[in-house]
Amino acid sequence: MNTVPELVTLHVWRTSRAALPRALTRMALDPRRLRAVPGVRFGKLLGTGTGTGFGPGDADLTRWAALTVWDSPDAAEGFDASPVGRAWARIARSAVRVDLRPLTSRGEWSGRRPFGDPPGGRTDGPVLALTRARLRPARAVTFWKAVPPVAAALHAAPGLLARFGVGEAPLGWQGTVSVWRDPADLVAFAYRHPEHRAAITRTPTEGWYAEELFARFAVRGVVGDRTVLGWAADGDPETLRGNA
Question: What GO MF terms are annotated (predicted)?
Answer without folding.
Answer: monooxygenase activity
